[in-house]
Amino acid sequence: MAEPNAGAAASGGRTAVPADGFRQSTILFAAGAASVGILGLVGLVLDIPVLRSIYPGYQTMAFSTAVLCIVFGTILASHSLRPFRGKARVFLQLVVAVIAVIEALELPFNIQGNHFIIETLMVRIGNVIAGQPTSAISPGSVVLVILSAIAIFLLLGLPDPSEGRHRDQNAASITGVVIVLVSLTFFLSYVYGAPFLYGTPLIPIAAPTALALTCIGAGLVAAAGPAAVPLRYFVGPSTVARLLRTFLPLTLAIILFESFLDVTLPLFSKTHDALQVSVSLVVFSLITGYAVIRAARGLGRALEAEERKRKEAEEELSQKNDDLTAMNEELTATGEEIQANLDELARREQELRESEEKYRSLFENLLDGYAYCRMIYDDTGRPVDFIYLEVNRAFDEILGTKTVKGKRVTEVYPGIREAFPDLFGIYGRVASNGKPEIFDLDFTPSGKWLHISVYSPARQHFVAIFEDITVRRKAEEVLTLYKIFTENAHDIILFIRKRDGRIIEVNKTATMNYGYTREELLGMTIFELRASEKIETVTMQMDRAAQEGIVFTTLHRKKDGSDLPVEVSSVSMVFENEQVLVSIIRDITERERAEEALRQANKKLNLLSSITRHDINNQLFSLKAYLELSKVSLGDAAKMSEYILREERAAGAIERQIVFTKEYQDLGVNAPIWQNVEETLQKALAMLPMRDIRVTADVTGLDVYADPLFEKTFYNLVDNSLRYGGPEMTTIRIFSQESGRGLVITIEDNGVGIPAEDKKRLFERGFGHNTGLGLFLSREIFAITGIMITETGEHGKGARFEILVPDGAYRFKGRS
What pLDDT is recorded for position 162? Predict the structure, then answer.
């Protein structure tokens, strides 16, 4: 009775020894086998008798046996640390299978005194490595190697312990036990000085080989785990397991120890046999007594625990008996109440019949469709059909059917199962598990949208109650389209009641642009948004929108009091018997700003073109005049030289004018855009010879609305500092600061600065030592979008240019 319990405990994880203990034991024994194999190879190579044969004259460990012990030990240890899976496991199974086949072929040759080709080759390799003749594998070792390979093959093929395969575990464990018994027997024969098979035609198993194979066998038993035979009988809390764990090792120890004394004591003394027996009895008595005391304590504690449980169970049983007695008395007392309840039940049955008549009337006059059905399943439990057991009048009215009672749904609606597989799935699921469900269905056979509630009053039956929601679903579809259109539109959308101008709906863009909340806008009229215009003008435009639609531009008043320039496209529609104007409104602030900038640029271009043309004409007139004078003065070298000099000056002036037109030709060609100041500055600096000048810029996230030539202004300003800052200049600093008039961007250096007498003409065309156009052109580029530039530095301390950007022409990223 205890043995199955022990095995169950072992397989379920409730063993006396943790699984980690068996894994560690496997690794320890496997490492021992591999170590003996390695030491045997060392003994062969270095000619150390104690390593290759334990004692001179004994059979030496075969080279092939040493290699196989290393291989088997390594596989066992590695598999215990981390089980092999996939291709690695298949490869190792193939390796051990090949080893088993080779050794099986070797066995008949070996018994006859010969060797298979593989073993012959291994002996030759051993001879070469050792430098002297080495032994071949013994037939006993061959048999044990084959058994080891089979057991390792089974262990490698085992899944996780929780997945089963106990038969393979048992086979591997029992094989390990056989290997241990045979190998240990041979090893003990060496210990006792009477090794087996010596003096026979067969090659005996060498002592190192017997020790290594003993370790492999023990490792196989440990690797098979506590759920396998025979370890399953030694683990767990059962009495049998406790006794086996105590007395079997003790018995083996006594037998081995006594045998050891019989062999060894005569070698060291000539003590009388009676004294030897006495000493042995005393030692064994002490060991046995200690083991029995430990076992008795464990069994005693277990018996005491069982006794406590028995007493607790008796007390609990006695308590329950008392409870049953009390319950019996209560049941007896309740009998009269039951009889009274039966009388009450009869009365209520009469009331129920009357109530059923009322509910039948309610059922027939119910506005929602009602169907009571029985589900039909196929052999696999899949719902394939259902029968209408009961329907009400509304069912036929909504679906347009007649006399469906008693019919299958596939009769009433052929092809319905293929058209609505999900419907059958829901009905079948509710009829089987009893959990109610609610869903909407586009029931195309009747052209209706149905809102269906289904529940199960009995197994394999269901009740479906449905409402016709066709009109509601169409309205929801329209509403969904409206929401998609309005909420994702970038333009403002207002719905305005025609008769009083009341705003009845707005989209999110409207709240973002006007600054009002949705609730605030819904409490306003269109006249309040157009506060700067006459009511008559607004009313006239609303009339035109209602008649034929209208597109116009106007100003709308924002919550902060500022005006928003907009373009309005307004048409009329009827909603809930009310005439409503749908106005799509576009913010044209940027467009007007760009148009104004282009107008300013065109104005400046026209003016500058006129001035430039006039200047060039003046210089051409002077050039022609000096050319005529030169013709007359060909014989006068002094005058000729003077006229040529003046002609060159006139030509140089014309050249400067042409250069200026090239610089100026792109001004205002493209509309202004938002430009990042930091990126623009970096582009300008990349084109300039900055030498060792340090530039610091604190304009992160700043954008300015300016002409696309904005980059040219920074180039000109920094270039001005580089040209005229002097050799003492080391730093150029750019930063911004908001003021009451807008944003001031400052560009300053620590050079020599600009003399006071030059400041008044600093931005005039032609003033300066280079072309005289850089600062003039910068001022004109700024002016296109209303930006002003002034020089406020102090001579001797450095130049300082302040660029005033008006409100609305600058912004900071990340700031609302």
Answer: 41
CA atoms in the 13 A half-sphere facing the CB of 260: 9
What mean pLDDT comes out for the span 533-537? 89
Say which residue the tokens 């090949």 belong to.
98
Using CA atoms, how far residue 702 sits from 594, 683, 782, in Å, is 20, 15, 16
Backbone angles phi, psi at 111, to 5 degrees: -65, -35
Rounded-to-integer distance, Cα 411 and Cα 397, Å: 19
The one-letter amino acid at 184: L
Q: In what order do the strands lie in the sheet with 503-506?
A: 503-506, 492-497, 578-587, 563-575, 550-557
Q: How far apart are CA 103 and CA 149, in angstroms?
A: 10
- Separation CA 114–CA 137 (nearest Å): 11
Alpha carbons 461 and 430: distance in angstroms, whole number:
8
Q: What is the pLDDT of residues 439-482, one digit of tens each?
A: 999 998 888 899 999 999 999 999 999 998 888 777 677 666 66
Please state, in angstroms and rounded to a whole number, the distance separating the CA atoms of residues 395 and 374. 17
Rounded CA separation 400/403 (Å):
11
pLDDT of 107 higher than 60:
yes
State how far the Cα of 237 lies from the Cα of 246, in Å rounded to an integer: 13
CA separation for the pair 253, 268 (Å, rounded): 22
Which tokens belong to 732?
């150029």
Query: Torsions phi, psi of 767, nearest 5?
Result: -85, 135
Sign (positive or negative) of CA dihedral 633, 639, 644, 647: negative
What average pLDDT score do residues 708-717 get?
82
Q: Beta 694-698 vs 731-739: how paired, if at all?
A: parallel
Predicted pLDDT of residue 3: 40
pLDDT digits 0-9 by tens, 735-761: 999 988 899 999 999 999 888 888 888
The helix (run of H) or strand (run of E) holding residue 352 is helix 273-365
Name the 3-class secondary structure at 466.
strand
Tell me which residue of 527, 550, 542 sits closest to 579, measured CA to CA. Answer: 542
Q: Is 56 exposed, middle or buried (0-12, 13-18, 19+ CB in 10 A)?
A: exposed
List, as one string, the DSSP characters of 611-671: HHHHHHHHHHHHHHHHHHHHHHTTT-HHHHHHHHHHHHHHHHHHHHHHHHHHHHTTTTSS-
Distances (CA, A) of 301 to 242, 377, 602: 12, 59, 109
Percent of the chain with pLDDT over 90: 32
Other CB atoms within a 10 A radius of the CB of residue 82 amount to 8
In whole numbers, what is the pLDDT of the chain averaged over residues? Answer: 81
The strands making up 369-377's β-sheet, listed across from edge to edge, are 383-391, 369-377, 461-468, 448-455, 437-443
Range in 307-316, 732-741, 762-771 with the lowest mean pLDDT: 762-771
